[in-house]
Specification:
mainly beta; Lipocalin; 2 domains; nine-stranded antiparallel β-sheet; seven-stranded antiparallel β-sheet; 3 helices; about 45% strand; elongated
């Protein structure tokens, strides 16, 4: 991991470059909820896809590789106006697929909260029966933790203590105050001020905040982790923080 640029505020600065290997390929997908999809990747950025019985939709996509044979394809369907995202995990080694649907604005208590729905399935290969194997929920991360470094001024620890819950320990409030007092860049100072305001509003929820999550085994070397900042949002009087569904 290289040195972070302070103008970046998230892990996006560390992400791998987009991948274009799916260009020209087609996938016939069966999902366990009964839906059947056809996906044509027209080039490295555009695709046509359709649920069986419906018209094809021409849309944009982004693709990153999880490993040599696993593709993470992100589509924000144009028909939902940016409120719905599809994340397709295409596992070409095992001919398996997992679709993670994230929807914004469907929970009245906090409109910024995201609802996350994972659906397992398989990729049909011509001349072969559909495999019965699937990606699956897992608890193999339970008992472990990861310390995420978002940028030089912000890092956080995730503690995976249950298959469906992870913990965030108390933020370093005093350390953040010192950084705020010493900071000279107006933009960074404003960001630190917003963090301190958030800490003050939600201080009753600490020393730990627990959030819902799930872990999915893609293969022996690759895990999919998804969480929603639900409790952090609901305990904020302004409902103005958290809420995201992150893969």
């Amino acid at each position: 991991m290289g040195k972070a640029n302070r103008k970046f505020k998230t892990l996006a600065q560390y992400k791998a470059p987009f991948n274009y290997e799916l260009s020209g390929k087609h996938f016939h997908i069966f999902l366990d909820n009964g839906d059947e999809y056809s996906m044509f990747f027209l080039d490295g950025e555009s695709l046509q896809y359709a649920k069986k019985g419906e018209a094809y939709i021409w849309d944009s996509y982004e693709c990153m590789k999880g490993d040599d044979t696993t593709y993470f394809v992100h589509v924000q369907p144009i028909q939902y106006g940016g409120k719905v995202n599809y994340s397709w995990i295409l596992d070409t080694a095992q001919n398996l697929v997992t679709l993670v649907i994230t929807e914004e604005g469907v929970i009245p208590a906090a409109e910024r909260l995201i609802r996350v729905t994972p659906i397992f399935g398989a990729i049909k290969v011509q001349g072969r029966p559909l495999t019965e194997k699937r990606h699956s929920f897992t608890d193999r991360m339970v008992g472990k933790h990861i310390y995420w470094h978002y940028n030089p001024g912000f890092s956080i620890q995730h503690i995976y203590h249950k298959p469906t819950l992870y913990r965030l320990p108390k933020y370093d409030v005093e350390g953040t105050k010192k950084k705020y007092e010493a900071e000279t860049d107006p933009e960074e100072k404003a960001r630190l001020a917003a963090m301190l305001d958030r800490f003050e509003r939600t201080k009753e929820s600490y020393p730990f905040c627990e959030e819902p999550c799930f872990h999915i085994t893609i293969n022996e070397a690759l895990n999919l982790f998804c969480f929603v900042e639900e409790n952090e949002t609901l305990t904020d009087p302004l409902k103005a923080i958290g809420g995201g569904g992150l893969l």
